Amino acid sequence: MLTKEELPACPVATTVQLIGSKWKLLILRNLMMRPWRFNELRRDLEGISQKVLTDSLRSLEADGLVTRTVYPEVPPRVEYALSELGETMRPIMKSLEDWGNFYKSTRA
After folding, report:
1. Domain containing 100: what range?
2. 36: CATH
3. Ordered strands of the 77-82 beta sheet
4. Which of 12, 44, 53, 85 stands the most exposed, by the fewest C-beta atoms within 10 Å?
5. Three-state SS string across the chain, please?
């Protein structure tokens, strides 16, 4: 996680730095629905590699947007969910969804 001094001065650039990759946006989209297990996410996000999913989840967790819960079971069960801070992304994700629907409706 970056310190305040390491973050871009521009707030838009800060947001893009935190969630601006294709995979991070799609991971957040899924986590808006419910908590997911790693392999569920990997199966649902067609084309994502295990390494990219791992790195993206670790980054989102380090930035405080996602929580990782390990359940003491055999075999271990791990779930990823939006953190309290991640929940504040809902209006942004809804705006992206609305604009995507609008754009698609304007195309022949």
Report:
1. 4-106
2. 1.10.10.10
3. 36-37, 77-82, 66-71
4. 12
5. CCCHHHCCCCHHHHHHHHHCCHHHHHHHHHHHHCCEEHHHHHHHCCCCCHHHHHHHHHHHHHCCCEEEEEECCCCCEEEEEECHHHHCCHHHHHHHHHHHHHHHHHCC
Number of domains in the chain: 1
Q: pTM of this prediction?
A: 0.88
Report CA 22 to chain centroid distance, whole Å.
9
Rg (alpha carbons) of the chain, rounded to whole number: 15
State the residue for tokens 């996680």: 1
Structure tokens at 16: 């893009």
> pLDDT digit of tens for each residue in the chain (108 aa)?
767 788 888 989 989 888 888 999 999 999 999 999 999 999 999 999 999 999 999 999 999 999 999 999 888 899 999 999 999 999 999 999 999 999 999 986
